[in-house]
Design a protein that fits this description.
The protein is of the alpha+beta class. Among the domains are: 5-149, Adenine-n6-DNA-methyltransferase TaqI, Chain A, domain 2 (Alpha-Beta Complex), CATH 3.90.220; 286-423, Adenine-n6-DNA-methyltransferase TaqI, Chain A, domain 2; 482-604. 40% of the residues lie in helices and 19% in strands. The two termini are 51 Å apart.
Length: 622
């Protein structure tokens, strides 16, 4: 027996602790890895019905045109599995015909595959794996894993109980995930209503009552036009200074800034879709500048103070610096610096579309998948960002994107995206406030759901821990036919697991097995009471000195006469022989773990002997 201090906690009665290779067959020698290219060549032109699953460390990784194994097996990761993540599976069951590469161990239990798989998924692998970045469970270490082995009937009970509890847990998880998806729909509904003007309807009503009539759209256009002209004048002023400097240094003059185009005219269709005095504006009409980042790779430096970011660094309104985000020096930053400001909105336009962030003075340079634009002072940047994360923009982006595997939205498409603009900055801010009030509730609910999902995964591990400490089958191990309640009170259950019927006209013939192997037979109309009396030593003279350990049989009759006749039969020679066979059958069913292991070892020895056949000599091909 294995004696490891890390697994030395007391085992339930009739359980044993053994090494893994004593309770399962290890079939690793039959594995054959096939690379992706060769697999693709083998399956080319073949129907899916002709193919078989190709498995790796954590699941199916492809298809192949042949199989190595057939039937139910356990696959346990050898390398690449999440060995130190308590909430992820390291082993899984496969069925049918399949192929396995050399990243998974192949096991076939001599008892229950499901039980062994559950056990392997609750084990702490810290004692058995090697390596740092890519952990490995080699076969020698795997064979040393201590396995708790219950008796065979209890194994079946444990699997049944685990599956019942997991089923309930999975139903709960499914409901949580559904609620999370509904929150996403609600978020988009909030944004849709916001940009239809519905969220600010009450605000507009209150403004009118206060004598603050909404300003006409014309005034908003004038404000936008004035601000764009001021920005252009500033650009020209800066350009003239640069030209003077270039002349002094004998350099070429830069191109003159382009004068902003006239704002597009309003269409009747757009007027009908928006609240009074709102206006559809293309992004290019409400910004001072729009561009993207570096189309290339800067010179990286681990000592640099600036970060090279792309679209995947934009997350929920913030720039997220990750562990693998590359750094650059100030010299590289100055070469590729963009005119970012407190009015800058960043949007991912390559790969993942629609991630957003604001610029808050972070030391960054942009890559090509990050688009930036600076909104005018008359426009609320939060209002614009919410428009960008709406489903309308996501649909627009995917419709206008180029590329099949990696989607890309052009700067032209970004400039031409239309946003419904309320006539005043105050109304834009009121809408933002309404959006954030509702979305903050969503955030809290979503956090509650995420916490519940984490707890559910922890509960899954708790169920497995209880299963292999014997807690899940604690009551089942009590003498057959009784379950503990209130310490010393026992309630008899029938084969379906429900409480026995308590009809006044019921009469029972019952059979008890005693500690010394003897059998006691009796009649009663109160089966629950008489069982408790026997257990307390007051049920009969025989059971005072021969302690009952199991109710191995009982029958229910409508009349006492029928019960008496049946008891006479059971006490007769034929009846006693039948009860002996029944007692033997019950003993066979409750095979202790030690006897189970002896049986496994005997069968394993026979199996090994049958495979040891003399090998014929093979000649090598020349």
């Amino acid at each position: 027996m294995l004696n490891s201090e890390n697994f030395s906690e007391s085992l339930p009665k009739n359980w044993v602790l053994v090494k893994l290779d004593n309770i399962c067959e290890i079939l690793d020698r039959q594995r054959i890895p096939v690379n992706v290219r060769d697999r693709d060549d083998r399956i080319a032109g073949k129907d899916k019905i002709q193919l078989f699953p190709y498995y790796g460390a954590t699941g199916q990784v492809g298809w192949i045109d042949d199989y190595l194994f057939e039937g139910e097996h356990i696959l346990l990761g050898e390398d690449g599995a999440p060995f130190l993540d308590a909430f992820k599976d390291k082993a899984y069951i496969v069925n049918g015909r399949f192929w396995v590469n050399n990243h998974a161990h192949i096991l076939k239990s001599y008892g229950s595959n499901k039980l062994l798989c559950h056990y392997l998924n609750q084990l702490d692998y810290g004692y058995f794996v090697t390596g740092t970045t890519r952990l490995k469970l080699n076969q020698a270490s795997m064979k040393q894993i201590p396995i708790k082995v219950p008796p065979l009937p209890e194994q079946q009970q444990i699997v049944t109980k685990i599956e019942e509890l997991f089923s309930e847990l999975d139903n709960g998880i499914e409901k949580l995930k559904k609620a999370r998806e509904q929150l996403k729909i609600y978020r988009q509904a909030v944004l849709k209503y916001a940009f239809q003007g519905k969220l600010a309807k009450q605000w507009r009503t209150l403004e009118r009552r206060a004598g603050n009539a909404p300003e006409p759209a014309k005034k908003l256009l004038e404000q936008i036009k004035t601000e764009r002209e001021k920005h252009y004048e500033k650009q020209v002023e800066d350009w003239e200074k640069v030209c003077e400097l270039a002349k002094t240094e004998g350099k070429n003059k830069p191109a003159k800034p382009k004068k902003p185009k006239e704002l597009s005219a309003l269409t009747e269709k757009e007027l009908e879709e928006l609240p009074e005095r709102w206006k559809w504006e293309q992004i290019k009409e409400i910004i001072t500048v729009l561009g993207d980042g570096l189309h290339g790779t800067p010179i990286y430096s681990d000592e640099g103070d600036y970060y090279f970011i792309n679209g995947n660094n934009l997350s929920d309104g913030k720039i997220e610096i990750k562990e693998n985000t590359k750094r650059v020096t100030i010299e590289e930053y100055e070469k590729y610096e963009k005119p970012l400001s407190e009015n800058t909105v960043l949007v991912s336009i390559n790969g993942t579309l629609g991630n957003t962030a604001f610029y808050n003075g972070e030391k960054v340079i942009l890559g090509k998948s990050a688009c930036y634009f600076n909104v005018l002072n008359t426009i609320d940047k939060h209002y614009i960002r919410y428009s960008i994360i709406s489903q309308r923009f996501i649909n627009y982006a995917h419709k206008n994107a180029t590329g099949s595997t990696i989607k890309n939205v052009s700067l032209k498409a970004m400039r031409e995206f239309k946003i419904p603009i309320p006539p005043t900055l105050e109304e834009q801010q009121a809408i933002v406030s309404e959006i954030e009030t509702r979305l903050s509730v969503c955030d809290k609910l979503e956090q509650t759901i995420e916490d519940s999902l984490k707890k559910a995964e922890a509960l899954r591990q708790s169920i497995l821990k209880k299963a292999f400490s014997g807690e899940l089958t604690k009551e089942w191990r009590l003498p057959a036919g009784r379950h503990e309640k209130n310490g010393e009170v026992y309630i008899v259950e029938n084969s379906s697991g429900k409480l026995m019927p308590k009809r006044k006209e019921s009469h029972f013939v019952y059979v008890l097995e005693c500690e010394d192997g003897s059998i006691y037979k009796g009649i009663t109309s109160t089966l629950n009471k008489i069982i408790n009396d026997h257990l307390a030593g007051i049920g009969a003279e025989w059971t005072k000195t021969h302690r009952p350990i199991a109710l191995i049989h009982y029958e229910e009759f409508k009349s006492e006469k029928e019960a008496v006749e049946r008891e006479k039969y059971l006490k007769s020679g034929i009846g006693r022989e039948w009860l002996k066979e029944l007692q033997k059958e019950k003993a066979e069913q409750y095979l202790s773990a030690e006897k189970l292991l002896e049986k496994i070892k005997a069968e394993k020895a026979l199996f090994t002997a049958s495979r040891k056949k003399p090998r014929s000599k093979q000649t090598k091909k020349k």
